[in-house]
Amino acid sequence: MKYNKLKRILALILAATTLTTMTACGKKDNDVSNNNSKDLEKITFVLDWTPNTNHTGLYVAQAKGYFAEEGLDVTIVQPPEDGAAALVASGKAQFGISCQDTITPAIVGDSTLPITVCAALVQHNTSGIVSRKGEGMDTPKGLEGKNYATWDLDVEKAMLKNVVEVDGGDFSKVNLIPSTVTDEVTALQTKSVDAIWIFYAWGGIATKVKGLETDYFAFKDINPVFDYYTPVVIANNEFLKKDADTAKAFFCALKKGYEYAIENPKDAAELLLKAVPELDADLVNESQVWLSKEYKAEEKRWGYIDPNRWNAFYNWLNDNNLVEINIPENTGFTNEYLPE
Q1: What CATH number corresponds to the domain at position 313?
Q2: Which residues contact 290 (CB under 8 A, 6 or more apart)?
Q3: Is there a contact between 209 and 152 (Cβ–Cβ < 8 Å)?
Q4: pTM over 0.70
Q5: Do 246 and 117 share a structural domain?
Q6: Considering 162, 194, 226, which residue would you say is the last residue of a domain?
Q7: How far apart are CA 332 and CA 300, in angstroms?
Q8: C-alpha–C-alpha distance, residues 22 and 66, integer Å
């Protein structure tokens, strides 16, 4: 008898838990059919760069009405000169995009900003070095004697030095050419530089679409500590504190957008192109197919940030004196606002 009573209690708890989970996404379910734009809560989202396939789930969520279903009217804007983090920190935007490596100065030290990383848009670091095929730069050691286009950033150069030395090379023999390359194909074809740091889903696919044969290696394949999170969604801390339900509703809609893009890369590419028709359609379509497998990769929960991988990269920065103040573990991110 006691056992049956216990089973009924457990069943009620499970039902309540399930109901809670089911309603976690759907902030204003009862109002969906009546949502007018004037009733929706205004949200501003700042990109990190010009629109590309890293952002597709955002545009899908907007086009498919997922934000409106959550009671939100989201405006997507491109970043100001000082970046998305500054705008989000100021409170003029609630959300934006950044990267774990470049956001480091905002996490600790004198330049700390009131922002928190709340989701990973791509599960693994897909960046690496691209070069013309067959010229010996398919491994880091091959960069010796070659011209590498550098942003001249301390962390960037430290990472490159690490992978060159791990591969048995001498970093001092790599020619660092200060340059911000925006057209990888032209830069490699004209030989203005020999090697460029790219995100494969865009820069790498661009060379493929244009018929330029290349070699490529990824940082995470040389040293797993470089499998950090890039790009990520950041949010304003005061907004998160005052309006946590809206933040959770936003991530529910964003998750639906990215999961649609994963399941329907061709359709998702069309939605991105419809929103940003000036993009190269061949590049968007090829990139979308490739990146659809990377948004979640092996992770079951969209947007999840693994504390071990997050901490591993920042511990590497600490150990190599690349930050003014050591970054404590589990600083700067949360999974609290993600749907299950």
Answers
A1: 3.40.190.10
A2: 200, 201, 205
A3: no
A4: yes
A5: yes
A6: 226
A7: 22
A8: 16
Tokens representing residue 33 in the block: 């059919």
Using a CB cutoff of 8 Å and minimum separation of 24, what contacts does 164-167 make? 164/140, 166/140, 166/222, 166/223, 167/139, 167/140, 167/141, 167/222
Provide the CB-side half-sphere exposure for 242 (13 A, CA).
6
Token code pair at residue 123? 């599960």
Number of domains forming the structure of the chain: 2
Helix, strand, coil shares of the chain, percent, nearest 5, are 50, 15, 35
Residue 73 has pLDDT above 90, yes or no: yes
Spacing of C-alpha 85 from chain mean position: 14
| Radius of gyration in angstroms for the set of CA atoms belonging to the chain, rounded to a whole number | 22
Residue ranges making up the domain that contains 190: 127-226
Scored b (16 or more CB within 10 A) or e, 4-26 reads: eeeeeeeeeeeeeeeeeeeeebe
Report yes or no on 241 lying in a domain. Answer: yes
> 189-221 pLDDT, tens per residue?
999 999 999 999 999 999 999 999 999 999 999
The DSSP secondary-structure symbol of 76 reads E
CA–CA separation, 258 vs 2, rounded Å? Answer: 46
Quick one: pLDDT at residue 11?
40
Q: Summarize pLDDT for 93-126 with one digit per residue, the tens.
A: 999 999 999 999 899 888 899 999 999 999 999 9
